[in-house]
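Here is the promised in-class demo. Please do not try to memorize the tokens; focus on the logic of going from shape to residues.
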């Protein structure tokens, strides 16, 4: 009980301190902060301005991985801004601010721009950055998330990727809409977010243009370039559906298609639970190399071929599409809150299993509770604050899903549905914290839930049996695992390793 309220108070105090100490304080004049104030990743994101739109135009040559680009950023200063930072790892050639050349310097992924004149708070500002580089050769602080393949590249990663192909404000707190144009040698396909608005050929090159009109976090903007079979049709809710399968999938092509082509069916199922689908397009991309994970790129998740080695896998499709609500539309306010993404996406898999007769959520809860003995190190990672190095730990997924089921057990099905539907509706296109979710759960259920959330999210060790923790004695009995377990385990082994 003390732990949870202590964390809530500390989080509130930290936010207040960051607000009042930051040079991005509204009404002040000075440089914007070089970070968004995330304890796990203090250098990610920036202060002093708010982005509304990115126009990204890149020319990419698969033969040598050379990328040349121009990104135009539409933003509004949140203070009288004398300088600002962009998160970027490639080599900037020039920067224009409101059409005028600006001075700039770069250290790591911090691109600091000093415009010739102060940008007034609330004014319309445009930043135009010309750049180039070979993304696969650029390493910053030991990191290089860029994925080069034999026939192209995958600009896919979490939480880092955008800085390796466009400059921006790289934190989920600053979402924007995107136009993405990628020019590649003729005969190469490109898939990105949203809707394909145009495609044109000129002098041996093809330009693919994509647009997403819903606010999107920078790490969820992506493109995949290479040799793909691209399929288009009408999907769920009458929306455009597009899937793409790498030509190199071989014998995995069948199970990959048998899984991803069920996306509209999965979205219908999830919308019945969570409410209106929050984005404007749907589909998926399956790579044949380079990736060992899946990622919920907004409107179009991307999957490694490895998920389909043992046959069709709908669990990963459910997981990544549940993220369109939990993670994409409602994003983490800071990366400490990752349970709000992964716990609920993992629990969506349990609900799919329950609906399709391969194991109820209670059976899956009992299985995982018994599978990890009380002294297993698994229980030492707390989903509510896993630490920077354990953001994608198995406990965030499996213990995270168990936490959701424990909440369901304590408050009941009707209250849980009310909680999650209200959460995704009221927080749409914004961010949220675990503390805000707990407050909503207590408000909607009319119950005091300190013991439940403290045990499941913030206390190391296996939560004890008890009505307040949502754990019945049946969870201590090892039983034959439900049919869904094998697929869930294969899925999560890849997801949390990322």
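The designed amino acids, position by position:
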């Amino acid at each position: 009980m003390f732990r949870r309220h202590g964390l809530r108070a500390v989080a509130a105090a930290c936010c207040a301190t960051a607000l009042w100490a930051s040079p991005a304080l509204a009404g002040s004049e000075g440089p914007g902060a070089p970070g968004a104030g995330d304890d796990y990743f203090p250098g990610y994101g920036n202060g002093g301005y708010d982005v509304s739109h990115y126009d990204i135009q890149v020319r990419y040559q698969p033969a040598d991985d050379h990328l040349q680009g121009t990104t135009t950023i539409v933003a509004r200063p949140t203070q009288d801004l004398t300088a600002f930072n962009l998160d970027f790892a490639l080599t900037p050639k020039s920067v224009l601010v409101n059409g005028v050349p600006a001075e700039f310097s770069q250290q790591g992924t911090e691109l600091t721009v000093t415009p010739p004149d102060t940008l007034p708070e609330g004014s319309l500002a445009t930043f135009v950055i010309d750049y180039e580089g070979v993304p696969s050769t650029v390493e910053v602080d030991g990191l290089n998330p860029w994925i080069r393949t034999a026939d192209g590249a995958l600009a896919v990663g979490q939480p880092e990727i955008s800085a390796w192909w466009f400059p921006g404000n790289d934190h989920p707190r600053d979402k924007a809409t995107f136009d993405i144009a990628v020019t590649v040698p003729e005969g190469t396909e490109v898939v990105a977010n949203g809707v394909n608005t145009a495609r044109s050929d000129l002098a041996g090159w093809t330009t693919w243009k994509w647009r997403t009109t819903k606010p999107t976090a920078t790490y969820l903007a992506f493109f995949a370039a290479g040799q793909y079979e691209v399929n288009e049709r009408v999907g769920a809710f009458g929306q455009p559906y597009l899937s793409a399968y790498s030509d190199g999938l071989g014998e995995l092509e069948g199970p990959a298609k048998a899984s991803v082509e069920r996306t509209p069916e999965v979205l219908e199922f999830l919308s019945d639970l969570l409410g209106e689908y929050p984005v404007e397009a749907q589909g998926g991309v399956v790579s044949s190399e380079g990736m060992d994970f899946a990622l919920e790129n907004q409107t179009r998740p991307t999957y490694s071929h490895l998920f389909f080695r043992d046959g069709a896998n709908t669990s990963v499709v459910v997981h990544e599409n549940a993220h369109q609500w939990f993670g994409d539309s409602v994003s983490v306010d800071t990366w400490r809150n990752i349970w709000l993404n992964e716990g609920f996406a993992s629990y969506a898999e349990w609900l799919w299993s329950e609906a399709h007769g391969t194991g109820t959520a209670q059976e899956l809860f009992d299985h995982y509770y018994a599978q990890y003995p009380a002294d297993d190190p698994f229980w030492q990672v707390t989903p509510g604050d896993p630490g920077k190095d354990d953001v994608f730990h198995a406990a965030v997924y499996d213990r995270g899903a168990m936490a959701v089921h424990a909440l369901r057990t304590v408050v009941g099905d009707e209250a849980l549905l009310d909680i999650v539907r209200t959460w995704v509706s009221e927080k749409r296109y914004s961010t949220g914290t675990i503390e805000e979710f707990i407050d909503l759960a207590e408000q909607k259920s009319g119950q005091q839930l300190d013991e439940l959330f403290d045990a499941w999210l913030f206390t190391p060790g296996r939560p004890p049996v008890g009505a307040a923790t949502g754990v019945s004695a049946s969870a201590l009995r090892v039983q034959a695992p439900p049919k869904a377990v094998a697929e869930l385990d294969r899925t999560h082994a890849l997801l949390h390793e990322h």
